[in-house]
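Hey, can you fold this one?
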Amino acid sequence: MLGFSAYLHSSLTKKDLDMFNKFVKAGFKGVFTSINLPEDDPKVLLENLKNLGKLCSENDLELTLDISSSSLKKLQLNLDSDLSVFQDMHVTMLRIDDGISLAGIARLSNGMKVALNASTIEQADIDELKVAKANFDNLEAWHNYYPRENTGLDQEWFNQKNQWLKQNNFTVMAFIPGDSNLRAPVYKGLPTLEGHRYENPLYAALDFKKLNVDRIYVGDPALKDSTFEQFRNYFVENILQLQVQLDNDVPSYLTSVMHQRADVARDVVRLREGRPLNKSEILPANNVLRKRGSITLDNSLSGRYQGELQLIKYQLPSDNTVNVIGRVIDSDIKLLDYCNANQAIQLVDIRSEDK
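Sure. Predicted structure:
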């Protein structure tokens, strides 16, 4: 499941609402927010949470709230007696930061969903929760995000931890960074994995699919419009959009929706519509080194392969039968690793408006 983050330091503005609606249209189903903001007025936080909760309810979105013992104390709330305050504001899950005992978490789990810190939970904690009669159907494991560079989690450790969590029947959640309006005060993205910090958010999301992650949330409050389109197309339409730069005078069909062949090649993505769509002679041109991310079209010297359209996954030498006609932009190159069998693919020429 996809989710995004919305923060409570200020009231929801028109800009915030526009961003909220973009996430909804792109197929996101959950919202993460926090009251662990010590510099903010408690009354303002609760009022903003109430408004956010109403918006989530109207759009059928799950709302997860990050809490700690210190933030509850500041808000003068007690989870044992005031749980209905959050439920009335349409909070569907509480994410426990620190200062709340395992016995308290067990009690909470019998009233609503609770997210534990995925990175720190150990077998002894699970054993204690069982003794305290926690409802494990209501417990999930959520990783943190890491604003400071070089502090994000190691991928190998992360994957091993997630395998253990899955063996213990936990739903696992982690954050990917945004790529617009990065959150203050560090402005370096909010990823769980350090390796995702400056990656295309869609690539980070797809990477999580092989790392035992069930819920994928954007830590930062915004994405670029082009990234929203990539998410919407992939998760709603099942189309993998790749942003590319095409040479002038290339066939117009190159930007239509095409498909990876059912038989996946090792070195290239072969778009099965390439040859059938080609209706003209392709003269040899630009027969240069085929770098990773190059877009190629077989020319007339290739005989029956004329019109063969490929995306290069691994660097290949030049070939006088193959024209290089463009390239996948750097931020999208790693998406080539997710061009699976029969995957619908659309090349989006980012220079088309300038032509």
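The chain has a mean pLDDT of 94. Let me know if you want another pass with a different chain boundary.
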